[in-house]
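Researcher: Please predict.
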Amino acid sequence: MTKKISLALVAALALSVGAAGCKKKKKEAPKDPTTSASPENKGGAGASPAAVPAGGAGSTTPVAGASGIGADALASLPQGIKAAVGINMAGVKKSSFFDMLKNKMMSEDKNGEFLKFVQDCKFDPFTQIDWMVVGMEQVGKGGDFAAVVARGKFDEATLMPCVMQKQAEKADGDKFTIEDYKGKKLYVSSKTPEKIMAFTSANTLVVGQKAWLTSLIDGGAKTAKDGAIAAMVGKVDTAQALWLALTELPAGGMGGPMPIPGGAPKAMWGSVDFSSGIAAKLSLQLASADAAKGMADMANAQAGMAKQFFDKMLVTASGDTVSIDIGMSEQQIKMLVGMIGMGMKRGGMGMGPGGP
């Protein structure tokens, strides 16, 4: 993720409040998060993306496998996106690490700024955001997001004036201006005027370029639901905590330390489940069946002692696709994190050249 994408995620979740991301209701006990999730989408395996027709703009033909969260998100993202990355909060909250992560975030809110925001603005992203998806038109270094869509329980009339007031009170706060467009409000940020926010419906917030938002409001926009990404999203279980679908990768790969046998993948899709440890499924489409077999063989040959950190570690090739299926228990995760921590201490916490 680039820095720009990270900022966009924060903007969509916290609506530019500028806090550390520490979120918790002060007056009310959180409701069961699973009751606010959108319908689940469990897309099965399908053909390679090039072999699955996605339909043209305005097509009424159902998109193969795209339903639930996936279909809802694609309907608010531009048709030409090359990647979609989603966070399903219901899936995230199933993790035993969720409370630990939330407590860490809360500890960083030294001045109680976010708690006051939640109380004053009556908005808690932990309980009121159902899911969020980032769409990208370019993948890799320098790639910026095309749009971000978040689905949840929003009260725009209460939330946005409160957010704008709190930002105006800060010396370095973001200053918003409002443009009215066909009964909708476009919120333009002084810091990132090229990306604006709008509630396209009572429960949907979209961050993107003005031309894209106005086309959504007008109706008839050419969305990703009719784009090449749709068939790929249909392969993914978007009910899981994290998921991704990429129809295109940079020619040089994602900048890893080692070249990939047979070249960079042509496409990639997968999901991560945090309900009990980590269960990750990832598929990569390569240039040929030989390239896929070469990658799988290399991965299995080099797995070695790393397998001790996994309950499950399977790398297989079928046609031009490599499938990676990984499972880690909570104990194994803690052991691995501990070893990484010890290694960082021995190295003087140094990250080497090019560190953060």
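Model: Residues 3-25+36-229 form one domain.
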